[in-house]
């Protein structure tokens, strides 16, 4: 069986968890949390990182931190995970959905430009599959209209836009370490605070609305309730697991990127013939090996291919369902068609990408896909 995902273990996870237990610091903001946060700050030059229990939590923190109010409009891609938008809707904002490019699920900056109104307060972008959105263009729009910019970089660890790390463009950015991502800790995430003015409040929101982090640093002699917040920080046991993964980041990235590139090579004949479209990063973006996705001509063909591959014990996966058409949101949507988001909803299929996949597995999967299109 070739499963869609298999969590990679570096081998150090249990050692570090044991160390965390030995430290007698298993709640949040302990030694492993600090090590993980420093890892990201040092490697990518992020201003301030705070580990969270999930990317969903980091997005919820972002929405509180940016002080978004009921009635504020925020522009999102429709082709994304629920949390990208739900986190902001919890603050009462109005979601305005922008379409993707025709040939890539990322948000199209021209769409964003057309949707800005006097009520728009923020733009939230998603780097789909770890491939950068057009950050120069999007940052330009944000600057022109004085909008806040958030990067949902859930997929985008160790990925770059013209050499600059993803996660460093937004006022704040969020990452996921869910078991399906490149670097994992079961459930986990991170908020990156690039805007120095937001740094202090971010720590407070992170710690239930208290100034406990400043207290730990010896900056205040007691801590108390100073703002709103919640319990967004993960246990140091989770951070210990994450640290064991981060130490293998380069190794994991090399393995995943080579898998994605082999898929592209093996399926190039099908994409050249126009039987499928493959999803590739834009010319300004890097491939970070998060996923390999192709687009089938319609939902029917995708369904048949899924059944065909499952019969061969291969488990591909489709992805997001356009949020403007979701059960929850459809009645609130302004009625615009978003054909590209719909195209990816119906046609996009992801093939297995994880460190246990062999070259032989990839060749086998691709031969089956080619045979499917040959009608064999
Ligand atoms: C684009 C995007 N944002 C946010 C999330 C939520 O991540 P988490 O499961 O860490 O909360 C996901 C989940 O896969 C996602 O794909």
Describe the structure.
The protein folds into 2 domains: 13-246, Type I PLP-dependent aspartate aminotransferase-like (Major domain) (Aspartate Aminotransferase, domain 2), CATH 3.40.640.10; 249-373, Alpha-Beta Complex (Aspartate Aminotransferase, domain 1). The strands form 3 sheets. A 7-stranded mixed beta sheet has the order 1-9-8-5-4-2-3, with helices on both faces. A 3-stranded antiparallel beta sheet has the order 10-11-12. The model has no long low-confidence stretch (mean pLDDT 98). The chain has 14 helices and 12 strands. It has helices spanning 13-22, 31-44, 55-65, 82-89, 109-115, 135-144, 199-206, 212-216, 236-246, 249-266, 268-273, 299-311, 339-347, 359-373; strands at 48-52, 73-77, 94-98, 120-126, 148-152, 160-161, 164-165, 172-176, 189-193, 277-278, 292-295, 348-351. The radius of gyration is 21 Å and the shape is globular. The protein is an alpha/beta fold. The protein is 39% helix and 14% strand. Helix 2 runs parallel beside helix 9 (236-246), helix 3 (55-65) packs across helix 7 and helix 10 runs parallel beside helix 14. The structure holds pyridoxal-5'-phosphate (PLP). Residues 54-56, 80-81, 83-84, 126, 152, 154, 176, 178, 189 line the site of pyridoxal-5'-phosphate. Pyridoxal-5'-phosphate is lined by residues 54-56, 80-81, 83-84, 126, 152, 154, 176, 178, 189.
């Amino acid at each position: 069986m070739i499963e869609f995902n298999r969590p990679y273990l570096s081998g150090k996870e249990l050692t570090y968890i044991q160390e965390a237990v030995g430290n007698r610091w298993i709640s949040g903001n302990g030694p492993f949390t600090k090590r993980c946060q420093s890892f990201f700050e040092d490697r990518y030059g992020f201003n301030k990182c705070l580990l969270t229990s999930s990317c969903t939590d980091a997005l919820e923190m972002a929405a509180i931190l940016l002080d978004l109010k009921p009635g504020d409009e925020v522009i999102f891609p429709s082709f994304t995970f629920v949390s990208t938008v739900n986190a902001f809707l919890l603050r009462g904002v109005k979601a305005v959905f922008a379409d993707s490019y025709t040939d890539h699920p990322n948000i199209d900056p021209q769409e964003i430009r057309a949707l800005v109104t006097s009520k728009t307060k923020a733009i939230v972008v998603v780097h789909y599959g770890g491939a950068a959105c057009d950050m120069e263009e999007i940052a330009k729009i944000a600057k022109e209209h004085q909008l806040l910019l958030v990067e949902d970089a859930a997929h985008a660890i160790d990925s770059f836009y013209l050499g600059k790390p993803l996660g460093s463009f937004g006022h704040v950015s969020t990452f996921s370490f869910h078991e399906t991502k490149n670097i994992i800790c079961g459930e986990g995430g991170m908020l990156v605070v690039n805007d120095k003015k937001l740094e202090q409040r971010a720590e407070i929101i992170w710690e239930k609305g208290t100034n406990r982090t400043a207290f730990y640093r010896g900056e205040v002699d007691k801590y108390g309730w100073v703002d709103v917040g919640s319990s967004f920080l993960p246990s140091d046991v989770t951070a210990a697991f994450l640290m064991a993964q981060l130490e293998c980041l380069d190794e994991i990235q090399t393995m995943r990127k080579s898998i994605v590139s082999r898929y592209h090579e093996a399926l190039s004949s099908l994409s050249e013939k126009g039987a499928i479209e493959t999803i590739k990063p834009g010319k300004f973006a890097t491939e970070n090996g998060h996923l390999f996705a192709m687009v089938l001509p319609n939902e029917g063909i995708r369904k048949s291919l899924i059944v065909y591959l499952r019969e061969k014990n291969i488990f591909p996966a489709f992805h997001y369902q356009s949020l403007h058409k979701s059960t929850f949101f459809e009645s609130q949507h302004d009625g615009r068609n978003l054909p590209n988001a719909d195209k990816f909803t119906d046609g996009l299929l992801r093939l297995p990408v994880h460190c246990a996949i062999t070259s032989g597995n990839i060749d086998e999967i691709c031969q089956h896909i080619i045979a499917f299109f040959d009608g064999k």
